Amino acid sequence: MTPVAALLDVTDEEEMIRVLLIEDDEDDYLLTKALVSARENATIKLDWVDSYDLALETIDAHKHDVYLVDYRLGHHTGIDLIQEAFRRGCRAPMILLTGQDDLTVDQSALELGAADYLVKGRIDAQLLGRSIRYALRQASVLAEVAQKENKYRSLFERSIDAIFVASNELRFQDANSSVERLLGYSRDELRILNPARLFSDLNQLRNLRFNVREHGQIKDFETTLIHRTGRKRICLISVWAVEDLIGRPEWYQGIVRDITDEKKAQQDLILAEKLTMTGKIARSIAHEVRNPLTNLSLALEQLKDELDTDNEYVTMFTDIIGRNVDRIGQLITEMLNSSKPRDLDRKKQDFNQVVRETLQLVSDRIKLKRMRLETSFLEDDCQALIDRDQVKTALLNILVNAVEAMQEGKGILCVKTNCTEDKRVYVEVTDNGGGISETDRQRLFDPFFTGKSGGMGLGLTATQNIINSHKGSIEVESQVGLGTTFRLYFPK
User: Fold this and answer.
1) Among 5, 69, 163, 277, whose Cα sits 20 to 30 Å from the Cα of 325?
2) Is it the case that residue 484 has pLDDT exceeding 80?
3) Coil, strand, or helix at residue 172?
4) How does DSSP classify residue 488?
5) pLDDT above 70 (res 11)
6) Taking the complete model, does pTM exceed 0.70, yes or no?
7) Alpha carbons 186 and 195: distance in angstroms, whole number
């Protein structure tokens, strides 16, 4: 018998539920048609096809709301049909009809996307109608959820902010592309990554976990995260709990904001203000001191002509006065040079060679103190647009401080050059000296701050001034008792 459509006598075609029965047994079709013809199923319109191939052809036309699929379809199964239909883009609900209870088949059908399953011989008109309407309603809800999920997934993926989803242990479960760019890991790598590897200070991770568990959320928690390449970024992390139906934290979602550039801009502004103040002080001192100092120097020369130069005590005291007059003049010059803007003569040149030449200037000190020098220079292109003399001055200040921080006969000075992903070169200077406390580290570049007796505290101020003039940056890491590392970055 040729398959036909079971027409129902209804006046409102728009309310009809169009159902396609895929069944190769005509008797089963007639039984199903009788169930659909019951009064309670008056809004259901049943069509029938009797083969696997014809079913796929009809499904591709997308003219039906629900599909009733027999499990046995010749050489194929109803599960095969459901899989192929979904592969072709059909999202209408499909109900599997089985000849007997088979939990394995039923479970497989549901896992592969079947909306429901019914056992032939146990179906009545009411059950069939309810299953069809339920499947249609469920499909509508799922479609709405999918639409919302796609909308929010799009917002999630396209957000400039780094957004992530995490477990109770704050391990990544999902992350958008901004997180991948910020940390340098793919989302698959983040899912298996121990979060401890991302924090420069493990105590910060412990504090973050404690606050989130204690209060259910934390806002703008400032910490330093480590990029896959080792580059450090200062970030603000906000995390809040998503609770289950009884109010227990089920998972967490959060946002990470990179504020490294903002922090650097603030520090540059503070430094500029400090340098401006230092310059004012230096100019004031130069004006108030240099004139009387010049008079003192001239008077000393005049006095030498009047005194007995054969007297060794007279000569000794006049020499002391002369050396200190010169020293005061030199200090004033250093103050002026440390604070005024640098006029740079920038040229493309070999950064490695500049570092080597600077190391030669401290080689005698290293040998005299019986220290070991270890170097590692980047073999690839290491050209940089720099002022050779200025960079040597800046690096020399760092090297001298490193040598003076280490014990004689035990010091190890490590110097290496490298490039970053954002097209910068840098030199890293590491010593195994006494280290610097966090309080002192925060003040290292302040004018007149020094930990050395007799020092003016202007060397590092001058160094940072030179680096800032190159549009570069400087990083300092130190642990008391273990040593200190300086990194000086310059644009290529």
Assistant:
1) 277
2) yes
3) strand
4) E
5) no
6) no
7) 14
Residue 448's pLDDT is what? 63
- Alpha-carbon distance of 236 to 224, in angstroms, equals 9
Residue 468 structure tokens: 């800032």
Whether 153 shows a pLDDT value over 70: the answer reads: no
Residues whose CB falls within 8 Å of the CB of residue 225, separated by 6 or more in sequence, listed in order: 182, 183, 198, 199, 200, 232, 233, 235, 256
Q: What is the C-alpha to C-alpha distance for residues 254 and 246, in angstroms, rounded to an integer?
A: 22
Q: Which CATH architecture has domain 347-491?
A: 2-Layer Sandwich (3.30)
Q: Which CATH number fits domain 160-259: 3.30.43.10, 3.30.70.20, 3.30.390.10, 3.30.450.20?
A: 3.30.450.20
Give the residue from 99, 93, 106, 96 showing the smallest Cα distance to 122.
99
Q: Which fold has domain 263-338?
A: Helix Hairpins (1.10.287)
Please give the single-letter amino acid code of residue 435.
G
Closest of 97, 88, 137 to residue 117, by C-alpha:
97
Domain 17-154: give its CATH code. 3.40.50.2300
Q: Where are the domains positioned within the chain?
A: 17-154, 160-259, 263-338, 347-491
Mean pLDDT value of segment 380-392? 85
The larger pLDDT score, comparing residue 122 to residue 5, is at 122
Q: CB count, 10 Å around CB of 211?
A: 15
Residues in the chain: 492
Instruction: Provide the token pair at 435.
Output: 């280290």
Mean pLDDT of 385-411: 90
Mean pLDDT of 150-170: 79
pLDDT at 396 over 70: yes
Task: Give the number of C-alpha atoms closer than 13 A to the C-alpha of residue 453, restricted to the C-beta side.
Answer: 0
Both tokens assigned to 314:
């007279």
CB 109 within 8 A of CB 96: yes
pLDDT over threshold 80, residue 432: yes
Segment 353-358 shows an average pLDDT of 92
Structure tokens at 296: 């003192």
Phi then psi for residue 53, to 5 deg, are: -65, -45
Q: Which residues pair with 223 in a beta bridge?
A: 235
Query: What residues are paired with 217 via a beta bridge?
Result: 240
